[in-house]
Design a protein that fits this description.
The complex is a heterodimer of chains A (114) and B (115). By secondary structure, chain A is an all-beta fold. Helices cover 0% and strands 52% of the residues of chain A. Chain A has no helices and eleven strands. In chain A, the strands form two sheets. In chain A, strands 2, 4, 5, 9, 10 and 11 form a six-stranded mixed β-sheet that branches. Chain B is an all-beta fold and 115 residues long. In chain B, strands 2, 4, 5, 8, 9 and 10 form a six-stranded mixed β-sheet that branches. Chain B has a four-stranded antiparallel β-sheet with strand order 1-3-7-6, with no helix packed on it. In chain B, 36% of the residues are buried. The chains are: A mainly beta (114), B mainly beta (115). Chains A and B meet through strand 4, strand 5, strand 9 and strand 10 of A and strand 4, strand 5, strand 8 and strand 9 of B.
Chain lengths: 114, 115
């Protein structure tokens, strides 16, 4: 059973604050790491797919880094806005016999207060 | 539309009945996933199809659960003799190319309530 851990479980910030959260995964047999944003009453939407150690991805105010050797990825949000309120999920694939299988973490629930 | 389509969106059934949930992936996507989210829980992997390869069924919680994917396209998740603990939102997702490298596109989900 793959252990994909996300922290913190929930986070409350004020509009304009920058924030970050963590996804931890097994450091052996890395294949891919995904980040998704899941807004209430909607479907999860992809933010990033990361495959290489040292990868840094950016989309607007959101960015992510990846360290496959130590088994973690950080997601950063700069200048949080209320519309950033959502659950942020990471998903890990270990490139095993079912290399496409993606195991999700429990998510970080972000609430941005105006 | 061009997105992943799931039906029904809501299903209420009595304990012991069988249910079928359908997923119509994005055309051309070779990978198809089923996940479920029970109340207060994260996304739980159920099954993964990749092209013509044998599916990864390692997440199916019991032999009451089965899934098939016909013609590499539409998938049906079947739950036999439903139990109350099967109540959850069942999400289908598809991706292009080798699973794991392509971002997942999710459907709106099927909410199952077992009375």
């Amino acid at each position: 059973i793959l252990n994909v851990e996300q922290s913190p479980q929930s986070l409350h910030v004020q509009e304009g604050d920058s924030t970050n959260f963590t996804c931890s995964f097994p450091s052996s047999n890395f294949y891919a790491l995904h980040w998704y944003r899941w807004e209430t009453a909607k479907s999860p939407e992809a933010l990033f797919v990361m495959t290489l150690n040292g990868d840094e991805k950016k989309k607007g105010r959101i960015s992510a880094t990846l360290n496959t050797k130590e088994g973690y990825s950080y997601l950063y949000i700069k200048g949080s806005q209320p519309e950033d309120s959502a659950t942020y999920l990471c998903a890990f694939s270990d490139g095993g016999t079912s290399y496409g299988k993606l195991t999700f973490g429990q998510g970080t629930i972000l609430t941005v207060h105006p | 539309g061009a997105g992943v389509s799931q039906s029904p969106s809501n299903k209420v059934t009595e304990k012991g009945k069988d249910v079928e949930l359908r997923c119509d992936p994005i055309s051309g996507h070779t990978a198809l996933y089923w996940y479920r989210q029970s109340l207060g829980q994260g996304l739980e992997f159920l099954i993964y199809f990749q092209g013509n390869s044998a599916p990864d069924k390692s997440g199916l919680p019991s032999d009451r659960f089965s899934a098939e994917r016909t013609g590499g396209s539409v998938s049906t998740l079947t739950i036999q003799r439903t139990q109350q603990e099967d109540s959850a939102v069942y999400l289908c997702a598809s991706s292009f190319g080798a699973g794991g490298l392509g971002e997942l596109f999710f459907g709106e989900g099927s909410r199952l309530t077992v009375l």
